[in-house]
Amino acid sequence: MQNLIKTLEAKKGFKLNMIIGADGFIDEIIHLVDKRQDYANYTRIRTIADYAERLARAAGLSTNVEMVTIQTKLGGNGPILSNALLEYGVELVYVGALGNPDIHPVFKPMADRAKAVYSLINAASTDALEFEDGKIMMGKHSVLKDLDWETFKKGLGGAEGIAKLINESHLFGMENWTMIPHMSAIWEGIITEVFPLLVENRTEKPLAFFDLADPEKRTPEDLLKAMRLIGKFEDKFRTILGLNEKEVFQVADVLGVKVTGTTDAEKLKNTVIETHKKLGIYCLMVHPVRSACCAIGGEYFTIDGPYCEKPVLTTGAGDNLNSGFCLGQALGLDPLSSLTLGVATSGFYVRNAKSPTFDEVIGFIKDWDAGIVI
């Protein structure tokens, strides 16, 4: 890691422009009460399995589960990713669902630091049930149906306005396909109307980053169409698809990739490599809970993360990992260094319930390298 630390030290003061969209959620971070001692003290339901057992015991009867709101914060893949990139010092434009006509107060700190914000519709909301071994996201998404191609295009000054923003950016990110019903139509609009307006004389194609956000509830036909659309972005961008471990097997299935291997590690590696080939894009990046991996240029890279047994906050951990990986790629880091920056960003976040600054992540990597990260 010493080489990465030196590289990051040399990159301080970088200048990068990015445009990110398109969701927006007001997140309530919630603990569920197991036993309450008095009005101020309680023990929480620790794991998802414990919660499942509690609910199962109520089948055919009824039950009462107390929710304690620990924090109300900005949410959604796009805003959390953007917040982390802003913390790193990226010049950022955000497009999405932060409130209309007025931006909701929970997004104001992010909006105030952004270069520009185009808030097209009202924000959705999520009850994020936090456990020591993961989270359950209880979302209320109905307002997101209002974000369609015409609304997106009109809000950014037409195809010409979108092209201008992309032409000025090093990375273009479109997050949360699953929960935005018209996201595929927005991508089709960009491909059809904006692609012809993008400049061709850049020394290197800009990056495009996509995050599906758990496509389980979408049909296989919808998911396959989305994968084909993402593949078309490779014409104008170096395209990155970021997935968690569950999602990569869902994508592999709709693409007809067969899972091979005898161990979990082999199955993951083989699936990532073959899915990457099928997609035909620059990079497929996958982040299981304890590690991260990617396929770029026909090669496979993997790294174990600084796993945290008792995280302070897990909601947003994947988005923070994405921010570190995307930043690494935008800074020209090699794949393994980008993965390292990704897991370090996430590792800092789950321990501190905040995204790191550039200096803080360098310090975290130094501590990790020294073996003193708990």
How would you briefly describe this protein structure?
This protein is α/β, with parallel strands linked by helices and 374 residues long. 40% of the residues lie in helices and 24% in strands.
Task: Describe the model.
α12 packs across α13. The model has no long low-confidence stretch (mean pLDDT 95). The chain has 374 residues and is an alpha/beta fold. The relative contact order is 0.13. It is globular and about 65 Å long.
Strand count, sense and barrel status of the largest sheet are:
9 strands, mixed
What proportion strand?
A: 15-25%
Shape: globular
Total of DSSP H or I helical runs spanning 4+ residues: 13
Question: Secondary-structure map with pairings?
Answer:
Layout: H1 2-10, E1 17-21, E2 25-36, E3 42-44, H2 48-57, E4 67-75, H3 77-88, E5 91-96, H4 108-113, E6 116-119, E7 124-131, E8 134-140, H5 149-155, H6 158-167, E9 171-175, H7 183-194, E10 207-211, H8 220-232, E11 238-244, H9 245-254, H10 264-279, E12 283-287, E13 291-296, E14 299-304, H11 317-330, H12 335-352, H13 358-370
Parallel strand pairs: 1-5, 1-9, 2-7, 5-6, 9-10, 10-11, 11-12
Antiparallel strand pairs: 2-3, 2-4, 7-8, 12-13, 13-14
Helix pairs in contact: 1-13, 3-11, 5-6, 7-8, 9-10, 11-12, 12-13
